[in-house]
Design a protein that fits this description.
Elements (H helix, E strand, L loop, with lengths): L2 H16 L4 H17 L1 H6 L8 H6 L10 E5 L1 H4 L3 H4 L5 E5 L5 H11 L7 E5 L2 H5 L7 H17 L3 E5 L12 H5 L3 H18 L2 E3 L2 H4 L19 H20 L2
Parallel strand pairs: 1-2, 1-3, 3-4, 4-5
Helix pairs in contact: 7-9, 9-11
C-alpha cells in the first residue's frame, strides 16, 4: 500500500471502528462547549474578531526592512501558544494567533493582523475550532469558503499563502476527552483533503502537519499533545521544520 493510501484510507477505516463516543462523553463535550461559548459571550458581542488583542503590537511594529521576508503565523490557540521566536530563532516571523478562534473571526481581523503588516507570506492554521462549533455550527462548505476568502485576500495583496492541515486529535488522556468529542476525525480528514486540492489548484503551499503527527489508529500521537489538541514542546518540534520548509517553498514561488 502506498504512503498516500495510508494517509487517507487507513485513518478513515479506523475512524469508523474506533472513534465512537458514549452518550455521557457527548453530553460532557456539549456542556463544555456551551460553557466555553457562554464565557466568551461578552467578547463575541463586543469585539467578534478580537481586534483589540494585537492592536498595540501592530501599531508598534515597524515596516519590514529592505529585503526582509516577514512571515505571519496566523491562527487559533495552536499558533497563540507557539513560542515562535524560540522555534525560529533569528527569523522575521510574527505570531498572530488567538485562542479559540474560528475562520469567521479570523476573516474579520485578517487585514489588521496580516495584510497591514506587509508580510511576504502568511502561514494559516485554523479549522479545528470551526469543526468544534466554537462560534456556532459550521458546515465544511462554510469553512472552505472562509479559507478561500483568506487566501484570495492574501493573494490580492501579494502575500504568499501557506495553508496548514488541521491537526489530528486524540482521547488518550482524561483532559483530552472533551476536545476530542467536539472534533470529528472524519471532518478533519475531509477538510485536509479539500485544502490540499485547493492549494494544488490555486498556487498555495499545503503544509502537512497531519501525516507525521498521526498514529496508526488515526489519532494524534499521544506524546505530542497532553490534552489531545494543543501540541506540547515535542509536538512543536515536529511542526517547526515542516513549517520552515513550507515557508521557503512559498517564498521561492513567483
Amino acid at each position: 500500500m502506498t504512503h498516500a493510501c495510508f494517509r487517507w484510507a487507513i485513518p478513515v477505516v479506523l475512524c469508523a471502528a474506533g472513534f465512537s463516543q458514549t452518550p455521557e462523553q457527548v453530553a460532557a463535550a456539549n456542556k463544555s462547549l456551551d460553557d466555553y461559548r457562554n464565557s466568551k459571550a461578552p467578547i463575541l458581542r463586543d469585539d467578534f474578531g478580537e481586534m483589540g488583542r494585537y492592536r498595540a503590537a501592530n501599531t508598534a511594529l515597524a515596516a519590514p526592512a529592505a529585503g526582509e521576508k516577514r512571515v505571519v503565523f496566523f491562527g487559533d490557540s495552536i499558533t497563540d501558544i507557539w513560542p515562535i521566536a524560540k522555534y525560529f530563532p533569528g527569523k522575521p516571523y510574527i505570531g498572530r494567533g488567538i485562542g479559540g478562534q474560528t475562520t469567521r473571526q479570523m476573516l474579520v481581523r485578517f487585514r489588521a493582523d496580516v495584510i497591514n503588516l506587509k508580510p511576504a507570506a502568511v502561514v494559516i492554521l485554523a479549522g479545528t475550532n470551526d469543526i468544534a462549533g466554537n462560534t456556532g455550527p459550521m458546515s465544511l462548505e462554510e469553512i472552505e469558503g472562509n479559507y478561500t476568502s483568506l487566501a484570495e485576500l492574501a493573494t490580492a495583496n501579494h502575500i504568499r499563502v501557506v495553508m496548514s492541515s488541521v491537526l489530528p486529535v486524540h482521547n488518550y488522556t482524561p483532559k483530552s476527552l472533551n476536545f476530542y468529542a467536539q472534533r470529528s476525525p472524519e471532518k478533519i480528514l475531509a477538510l485536509n483533503r479539500w485544502m490540499k486540492d485547493y492549494c494544488a489548484s490555486n498556487g498555495c503551499i499545503y503544509l502537512d502537519y497531519f501525516t507525521p503527527m498521526v498514529d496508526p489508529s488515526g489519532m494524534l500521537k499521544k506524546e505530542l499533545a497532553d490534552d489531545g489538541l494543543h501540541p506540547n514542546p515535542d509536538g512543536y518540534a515536529v511542526m517547526a521544520p515542516l513549517a520552515e520548509e513550507a515557508i521557503q517553498k512559498a517564498l521561492a514561488t513567483k
